[in-house]
Amino acid sequence: MSAIIIDGKKIASEVKGELEGRIGKLREKNIFPYLVAILVGENPASVQYVNMKAKACTKIGIKSRVISFPEKLGEGELLELIEELNADKLVHGILVQLPLPNQIDQLKINLAVDVSKDVDGFHPENLGRLLLGKPNFIPATPLGILELLSRSGNSPVGKHTIVLGRGDLVGRPFSVLVSLKDKRANSTVTLCHSATRNLNHFTKQADILICAMGKARMITGDMIMPGAVIIDAGTSAVNDPSTEKGIRIVGDVDFDSVSEVAGFITPVPGGVGPMTIAMLLSNTVKAAEQINGICND
Amino acid sequence: MSAIIIDGKKIASEVKGELEGRIGKLREKNIFPYLVAILVGENPASVQYVNMKAKACTKIGIKSRVISFPEKLGEGELLELIEELNADKLVHGILVQLPLPNQIDQLKINLAVDVSKDVDGFHPENLGRLLLGKPNFIPATPLGILELLSRSGNSPVGKHTIVLGRGDLVGRPFSVLVSLKDKRANSTVTLCHSATRNLNHFTKQADILICAMGKARMITGDMIMPGAVIIDAGTSAVNDPSTEKGIRIVGDVDFDSVSEVAGFITPVPGGVGPMTIAMLLSNTVKAAEQINGICND
Question: Please, are residues B213 and B195 in contact by the beta-carbon 8 Å criterion?
Answer without folding.
Answer: no
